[in-house]
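Input record (Table S2, row 401):
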Amino acid sequence: MLANLSDTFLAGATAKSLGASQLFLASWWDELWWGGKTGQSNFAAGTDAVFFYIFWVSVAFFALLMFLMVLWAFQYRRKAGTHAPVSNSHNTKLEIAWTVIPTILLGVMFVWGFKEYARQLVAPIDSEEIQVTASQWAWEWVYPNGATTLETEVIADATAPVFALPVGRPVKFIMSSTDVIHSMFFSAFRIKRDVFPNRYTVMWVEPQELTHRVLADANGKYIKLEPIDPANPGHYLTCTEYCGDQHSQMWARIVLLSPTDYEMWKAAQASTDDIDLKTLGEMLYATKGCNACHSVDGSAKTGPTWKGSWGTQRTFDDGTSAEMDINYVRQSILEPAAHIVDGFPNQMVSYQGRLTDREIRAISVFLKTLSSSKDDQQKAQEESDAEIAAKKAAAAAGGGE
Ligand SMILES: [Cu+2]
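Output record (copper (II) ion complex):
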């Protein structure tokens, strides 16, 4: 074990060379803390090794100190008829021992910990760069081809985005927040870093084990993701900086793909042009995090529900009012502070630059379908259909030239 340890220390651990779960009886900890999953990144084994070194040093000293304390309290307890003995003022050997041994143990913690930290600081030059925007209470990733994810999964009653990453390729995250401080944590990768408003922080990692593959049709067109092992639905991304009401639901599903599958998935996420407005609006509602604050079932969250709001008169905290139509929706998205709906906090951040014009239209079409009026629902469906028809006609005309 010692040889193993120093190898790790000198060479920089990889999951294979070390087998983090074998080190220091770590497997029960994996089971308890990580749900039986060992680390899935180039940093996992190294981080676990430092962690368990610190953990077992602490356990050993705790046990030793508690044992001696109880033992001596009993052994040297005051007995009837005896006086407390005068204790030695000084014992050089003992004092050297309790200075030198902890200094060495702590020195190893520092040097080893710093070495692992340093490995995580600088991303390789050929990293895949992903732009991350954190907001209350959602993660948005923009891939190098401009794609954001279109896929979601329901995790514990909350709809969360699904993000894919390539296995065996370094990935660098360039992160910033639109509101408060968040922190991006991948438990399976054993990495985490804070995300701040008004500045960028970076973090990188190389994921290691496939969790999913891409299903494609005969023409090589993307259909969907499929877990390789049905018992393993992938990993989690969570927020580890308390950031308000729904902090605990600020998460995402992470799936790990082979580089070719990853490229196909990424390309499929980039083309929203084929998706009709209503479906796109519904997707954006979840993938852009509107669902954190707006419900579609009538319940009030941080923001007003979207159910049945279309076409109604909205009253604002300054006594004015306006009708919920496309212009109002547009302004609410781009300049949310312009009108504050009565009874709600001014807590929505602007999505200026994060939604295209077509996406804003899609959201308003989706909102309309949540209206109680049959006319509005009908109209939304027609708008969505008309756009598809126009596109098909254009494609047909284009194809004929
Ligand atoms: Cu957060």
